[in-house]
Design a protein that fits this description.
Blueprint: E1 13-14, E2 52-56, H1 60-71, E3 75-80, E4 92-93, H2 95-100, E5 110-112, E6 114-118, E7 124-127, E8 137-139, H3 142-155, E9 159-169, E10 178-184, E11 194-200, E12 202-205, H4 212-216, E13 224-233, H5 236-241, E14 245-251, E15 255-264, E16 269-275, H6 282-292, E17 301-311, E18 319-320, E19 323-325, H7 327-330, H8 341-358, H9 368-396, H10 400-410, H11 413-425, H12 433-461
Helix pairs in contact: 1-3, 1-8, 8-9, 10-12
Length: 462
């Protein structure tokens, strides 16, 4: 079994303790990101080596974190079990992510310029009238995006390991390492893999909703949704309909607390739904979503079925010592929209930047205070977004009449402009006071009509 020998750490070694070592030299690229150095004066300077950080999970959060760390002078190890993972995900990314993360256009399958919202009574509203010619929502396949981000991290010096993270031994003293246990799959040991350990100074948990890193630091539980998705190959004439169009269906039939979707990919569509409150009925909701879209996907063949948990709110604890959680592991998925890709990549990068800054580009040890700066910055920047979407879900997803009101509200051009500007660029867009007042009046009117409709429906059900 191959090992990595470090001073003063033992590093990668056989679980049995056999002292067989092979030194691997790691090439670190020169930092290209400008960081504000903020390491504490009392942080010990590392001798004969750079700071070592393990990133567990190779999705957008892990790939972005690993790239930033390796560019910043950190010796980086990214551990991912399924390098060809196809996570069940709608795959929508905002326009700002393309530029901010320097994504090549061939990673993007479709440029959606029209989002069609379909109410419980099948009233359709097209959203996108306010988009400028260059604006769009990108549609990606996770297996393509994730692989690209991991490969780029590797090109910048990160060690990408095909392995299954098992557990982590916590340090007893502040200057001791974290000892990671994982099974490495390098093709030499067959499907069983080989048990390996790795000693590092800090750990970033980017290993999804079922995060083992979160369990290791007792980060606490959270509510989660089950997302169920079928990839369907549909006839060419049907595919042409979805060339630049995505659909969202709302209603008790497709989900009591979320929505169903049909999102276009390169040569197929993704049809899916999700729920927090009625997980055992997820296949029933999926069938209803297919039925709502049946005329547009007629003749389609299912080529892949996927399911995965999606967090509904941040974990009670996202940081402990020199271990931090990012992406789904931290619970960074928005309610109402269910968006998580951008926030995963952004949190991974922000956490890595905090480590690079705190360690003076890998020259000093970091502590919890350095990593906490990432959480403070994250919460200050994005907490309002999560809160607003949480309120919207509670108000508009509670009943079919409320969903009818929501779709009606989406037909307003001002609502579309504010919504798309906020989504595409991930910033709070200042509103027009007069338009805001009109929107408030219209929203109240829609909710009043929805409440009246709900009462009439209840009478009919008696």
């Amino acid at each position: 079994m191959s090992s990595i020998a470090f001073k003063p750490f033992t590093g990668l070694r056989r679980s049995s303790g056999v002292p067989t070592t092979t030194t691997i030299s790691t090439t670190l690229s020169k930092p290209v990101i400008k960081f504000r150095v903020s390491a504490a004066k009392t942080s010990p300077k590392l001798s004969n080596r750079n700071l070592r950080v393990a990133v567990i999970g190779g999705g957008p959060a892990g790939g972005s974190a690993a790239e930033t760390l390796s560019k910043g002078g950190i010796e980086t190890f990214l551990i991912e079990r399924k390098l060809d993972n196809c996570k069940p995900c709608g795959g929508a990314i905002p326009l700002c992510m393309v530029g901010e993360f320097d994504l090549p256009l061939d990673v993007i399958d479709r440029r959606v310029t029209k989002m069609r919202m379909i109410s419980p009574s099948n009233i359709a509203v097209d959203i996108g009238r306010t988009l400028k010619p260059h604006e769009y929502i990108g549609m990606v396949r996770r297996e393509v995006l994730d692989a690209y981000l991991r490969d780029r991290a590797k090109e910048n010096g990160a060690n990408v390991i095909n392995g299954l993270f098992l557990k982590m031994d916590m340090p007893k003293n502040w200057d001791e390492p974290y000892v990671l246990h994982y099974t490495e799959y390098d093709g030499k040991k067959g499907g069983m893999g080989e048990k390996v350990t790795l000693e590092v100074d800090a750990v970033i948990g980017a290993d999804g909703a079922n995060s083992r890193v979160a369990k290791a630091i007792n980060a606490g539980d959270y509510d989660y949704a089950i997302a169920f998705q079928e990839r369907m190959k549909i006839p060419d004439d049907k595919m042409a309909y979805y060339e630049n169009l995505a659909e969202m269906y709302v209603g008790d039939d497709v989900s009591p607390d979320f929505y169903g979707w049909v999102f276009p990919k390169c040569d197929h569509v993704a049809v899916g739904t999700g729920t927090v409150t009625h997980k055992s009925d997820i296949k029933k909701f999926q069938l209803a979503t297919r039925n709502r879209a049946k005329d547009k996907i007629l003749g389609g063949k299912i080529i892949r079925v996927e399911a995965h948990p999606i967090p509904e709110h941040p974990r009670p604890c996202r940081l402990s010592g020199r271990v931090a959680l990012v992406g789904d592991a931290a619970g960074y998925v928005t309610k109402c929209s269910g968006e998580g890709i951008y926030f995963a990549a952004k949190s991974g990068r922000m956490c890595a930047e905090a480590i690079v800054e705190g360690s003076q580009h890998g020259k000093k040890m970091v502590d919890e205070g350095d990593l906490r700066k990432y959480l403070e910055k994250w919460d200050k920047t994005y907490w309002p977004t999560y809160k607003v979407l949480d309120v919207l879900q509670k108000v508009f997803y509670r009943s079919n009449p409320a969903r009818e009101a929501f779709v009606e509200m989406c037909s307003d051009e001002y609502v579309q402009k504010m919504t798309f500007d906020s989504y595409l660029y991930k910033m709070v867009v200042p509103g027009n006071p007069l338009e805001d007042l009109k929107l408030a009046v219209n929203t109240i009117g829609s909710l009043v009509r929805a409440n009246a409709l709900r009462k009439e429906m209840e009478k009919l059900n008696v």
